[in-house]
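Lab notebook, bench 4. The sequencing result for the construct came back, and we need a structural model before the next group meeting so we can plan mutations. Quick request posted to the team channel:

Model the 3D structure of this chain.
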Amino acid sequence: MLSLLLKSMRSRIIPTSLVTISLMASMVLLLSIERIQQGAEEGFNQSISGVDAIIGPRSSSLELVLYTVFHLGRPTNNITTKTIDDVKQRSDISWLVPIALGDSHRGYRVVATEPNYFKHIRYGNNQPLTFSKGVPFAELSEATLGSDVAEKLNYSVGSEIQITHGSIESLGSKHDDFSFKVTGVLNKTGTPIDQVVFLDLKGYELLHLGWKSGKKVFSLEDIDLSSLPPDALNPKTVTAAFVGLKSKLTIFNFSKNIREYPEEAISAVIPGIALSELWSIVGLVDKGFQLLSWIIIAISLIAMVTLIIASLDNRKQEMTIYRANGASPKFLAAMVIYESLVIGLVAIIGAIILVTAVTYFATNQLNLALGVSPSFKWISLNEIKVFSIILLSGVLSGLIPAAMVFRKNLHQALS
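Done. Here's the predicted structure in token form:
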């Protein structure tokens, strides 16, 4: 039967191929949307771990998480280090790591922080940051690189780098009067950390001593750095601070107390809750695309049934020869059902290959745009369910033309 079926389909190769491609494309659309959304969510959720709250200027919680963790957008304001020092004295805080943002290096963000950043900040399933080369910065003239920065710019331990004043979106003048020496390169994490240049907060403050209102007033080469008073390089403001609490049970009370801080308008954002807001927004769009994809799949199945029914009139002679050679009506009806099954299987196999290619490309794009590297499987349990539903729907839809073939007898065909 299979040989006869394939020969019959080969005689109608163009319309059969178009229906198969249509069904395959609709499955690729459905599964690609779902995979990319799940992959992006997984990548975002694994980008920071062990951080109970992020303290920053009072603004949208999602906006704060996006520019502090994922380096998307620019900070709206800063908070004073006096406020950070006051908060740090709270008895419910285990550790606090301040960060300052604003500058860049050859298209990569600069994050100024303290050496204990590499001790407390984690990613994935509470995995610590580790070094492929060297050690964290320890002096104000030293820098640590994410793996992508070192790889793409061909840097290693001992390389000298200079920082550009301004973010990636609005590149400014280069801080060409002071260089940083690379002391370490982090192992790849698959998170935005891979695309960051880390500096010491005091070194970052030193860069901006000769700047005012975004313009260089004097060069650092004109001053004796050893003559600066001890507190001259203590930063006056920072962008935000990552916080670890002694007990996660106090997180909501901590967030409430920070929001009520009387000296400055600040807030404490819980990263997980902020990201859930993002996925609730993305989920609405995703559901709309999924509905559209299912509609396209239904249209493709209808087109397949229409093709088979329309071809029955042109296959009278074929059917008559089969009947004259002893084929039963059940055999002919089974051929029609198997034709639907073959079209569905070919479409599914093609969809798996194309979806894998699409998601591989999407992984590269997510890594380039967001710094996240989600992992994708060849096929998931949920996708198997989707394929099963589509295949079963195709077979059931094939029952209509199969019933039409079964009802025809030899006399009707010959006449």
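The longest strand covers residues 93-99.
Will bring this to the meeting.
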